[in-house]
Give the backbone structure.
Amino acid sequence: MKKCILELVRRDYGLVAYMKLAVMATFAFMLTACGGNYEGETDEVSSNVALGLVVNEMGRAAYNEQCASCHGSAGEGTANGPSLVSCASCTTVETLAARIESTMPLNNVEACEDECATNTAEFILVAFNGLLFGSVESLATGVTIMSPKATLRKASLNLTGRLPTETELASVDSDAALDAQLDNLLSEDAFFERLIEMYNDTLLQDKYLGSENALSLMRDEDFPSRRWYRDLGLDLDITEERDLYYYLRAQTNDAIAREILHLISYVVRHELPFTEMLTANYTMVNAFSARAYGVESQLSFGTLTEAEYPAYPQDPEDFQPVVLAAIPHAGILTSPMFLNRFPTTDTNRNRHRARMVFDMFLDTDILAIEGTRPDDALDLLGDNPTLDNPQCTVCHNIMDPVAATFQNWDEMGRYRPTSVFGDWYTDMLARGFNGEVMPLAGYADASLQWLAQQIVADPRFARATVKTAFKALSGQEPLTPPNSEADPTAPEWQQYLAQQNFFTQLQTVLIDNNWNLKSVLKEIIKSAYWRAETLTLADADLLYSEFGSARLLTPEMLDRKISAVLGQDWVFWSDRHYLTDPSSNSFRQLYGGIDSDNITQRITEPNGMMVAVQARMASEMGCQVVTRDFFKLRAERSIFPHISIDTSPVDADGLPVDSAIGAIKQNMQHLHWTFFGR
């Protein structure tokens, strides 16, 4: 059982040779006993459509000669030219060629006409936009994909941390039926907890969980009731009152710490346009944080059936939208938690915040913009290098107008309207975005509202959204552009083109479904990128190395999988989970987790310490689950639902007992499906 559990842990990371041998040794008698009559899930679907993405070499040469200096070698954009990824004219070869022929290059429009324009357009659409046509299935030639039932099992564990029921599995006999079951999974409360976890990996808001870490970032003059529970007169020397005090403090602080994560959850739960994560004219509160903001009288919250503290029966998970007076809300951007998590200083002037906006919401790494940044970029003799030194302006012309839109919010995330607190720095570019200067009328004190509108209208926002979702579900970083001189037939180039094609299709799905994020999550799960299992073409390992969603599970995902598959939590001190508890006694960070503060990147490749954690878990749980499972009613068992503790394949005379052998075979099939999804 210990070896089976180890394989359960490592299965999602990939098939390791020595682990396969261990499992085979453990299950040798099972495989022999089944006699080839295993009736588990084996049907697989194979795709057979070619990729069809070919680079126009003449177009590549023309692009590198006449376009790359402004638009970047990978089409990512520079200070002198916009990104060509999902650009407005990047729809068809004809449309883009006409645009090039009539307007490009700026200093010599006649330099690229007719065939040159067509070749360049073809190159741009293939290299930076994945050609914008072809189906998702066309990316999967040469791979077999999971059956609908196996896909549902994997999706259920990933999205909700549970195994699908027999009824759910029985209903999934096609991809159309799978679609309906995915809709059900994406409506469960457990999914929204997973969604919060997914987006915290980017926004890192859990840094402020616990104690008064979030509340301490607010100021009494702005929110005089922020520590309202201190005014109740509770005696901390009395156990009951002390417990109530810490309960109220925790619910208040943690609700504020996660308010932007609950905003995302609210938008997705109610299937609102995902653009509202930035454009929402409200913030999210529960009954406890509402009192901290002084808006408790404006809302009515649900209550718990069996409240631990009857005087405070409100459900702490009931989050509702509310408008804070005099605050020009712009979704995530105006949250004190976001502004503090990505801080600024008098000398930084919101540039860090601007860089994070580009990185998170516009799929643009400011630090990767084309440029050599030599030593003379530090032009101390110039009046203002960020305005007049070309080595500096290549980035600052893009970043500084966005940084200026944060001028209504200070380094502590407090709202400071220009009309009250004065103007912004005069030696810095005016508020704007993508070369457009922000109109002051209506936005002088609410510039982040204007910025939010510009961001969600930019095609890069859709690209950033689908790439974030892809990474969260698959555990894989999106591919970076290969060298512009790479052989177009090379596997890395074909991989990149195929993935670009996939992302473009996901963008179309997102926009066509009114920006409903659930539609993108479903498409990712149904795609070969997530469902691929094995190769059907020889020598295709490199080309398809990015297909499939084999991954090292995060501590949180592994914790849920252990509970779902084994029917028992891996805990210490009765109810504290080894893999998720925030205390130093847990294995959360040893197993590659983050604390959203000092550790912000998850470990995605196993190391010796993580293997030791796996071994300990397998040793402890292997002993516990076997004995405890037999003490449960048969209908409630996770591991041995078809046999009893005294089931034997032979009787006292050594003769086979057919009914017992059948039950053992059935239980082995159950174990194989429960543990491995096969």
